[in-house]
Specification:
Number of strands: 8
CATH topology: Rossmann fold
Number of helices: 8
Shape: globular
CATH superfamily: Alpha/Beta hydrolase fold, catalytic domain
Structural class: alpha/beta
Order of helices and strands: HEEEHHEHEHEHEHEH
Strand order of the largest sheet: 1-2-4-3-5-6-7-8
Length: 284
């Protein structure tokens, strides 16, 4: 009964936009057809002699010229990374929410979920980098977290790990404030990232007005893949909807999903597999 009522409310909210809902509360804006770049072959076959079924974490800390403190992150390396030395991997930069730390996606089960996806044979392995935003109480203009991530962390990771060191092999995503950073950084550094995932998207105040300038700066054939999802009871649904309207107005291809749930770890944990599959699909 409650689910039906929520579905009715969401339909009323979006009825003027001609959207379609089916099954769970979910809305998808079909991507506008565009020319897309053709990446080089991304992943070499994994060694057949490797019996590993679980990835592992490394913890890194690199000096920063943009911030007054080091950039910290944990790095998930997939099964067989240390054995199959001929394989290079795509990289997902996965950002945590405000007041949380770089262990959030680990606690939500991202590594175990990706292990299972890889072991199924349906998805190729990739690296996940989980940066830590140390100072998460300042605005996006004062903070140098996004620029440090794109200009310092990405080159460092490409130098230290066997990555696909080109745009087609990189994605950025996050939840809540991390989703705001993912959208802002992915758009401003569009030559660095080919996919942007925004989960429980909480846009930065002011980015609504900046966004049209981002869109216009990106060549049509180089627009990134974009995925946005929200819980129907999320407190940030309205601002996320305003930003999504900007995307639609400027004909920026994207997916827009509304599911049952709210702004909490139970919601994110329930959708970790959906997120990782979406990123992985971009590298198939």
């Amino acid at each position: 009964m409650k689910q039906g009522l929520l579905l009715f409310i969401v339909c009323l909210l979006f009825i003027g936009r001609g959207t379609q809902f089916s099954g769970e509360i979910k809305e998808t804006i079909a991507p506008i057809p565009i020319l897309t770049e053709t990446p080089t072959a991304l992943i070499a076959p994994t060694s057949e002699g490797c019996a590993e079924t679980r990835g592992r974490f490394e913890f890194i800390e690199i000096p920063s010229d943009l911030m007054s403190y080091p950039m910290e992150a944990r790095v998930y390396l997939p099964p067989c990374y240390d054995i199959d030395l001929e394989t290079n991997y795509p990289v997902l930069y996965f950002l945590h929410g405000q007041s949380f730390k770089d262990d959030q996606w680990d606690r939500l089960g991202a590594d175990e979920t990706l292990d299972e996806m890889i072991n199924s044979g349906e998805y190729d392995p990739f690296i996940i980098v989980m940066p830590k935003e140390t100072n998460y109480m300042i605005d996006q203009w004062t903070s140098k977290f996004g620029p440090s991530l794109a200009e310092e962390l990405v080159p460092w990771v490409d130098n230290q790990y066997r990555t696909i060191s080109e745009r087609a092999g990189r994605a950025i995503g996050g939840l809540s404030r991390g989703a705001a950073w993912a959208m802002r950084t992915g758009m401003l550094y569009w030559e660095t990232f080919s996919s942007i995932g925004c989960h429980s998207f909480a846009p930065f105040r002011g980015d609504f007005n900046e966004a049209p300038f981002w869109f216009k700066a990106i060549p049509q054939e180089r627009l990134p893949r974009i995925y946005i999802d929200m819980g129907v009871l999320d407190v940030n649904l309205d601002p996320a909807n305003v930003f999504e309207t900007r995307l639609t107005k400027y004909r920026i291809p994207h997916e827009w999903h509304i599911f049952l749930g709210t702004h909490n770890e139970a919601y994110w944990s329930a959708h970790v597999e959906d997120y990782l599959k979406w990123y992985a699909e971009g590298w198939k």
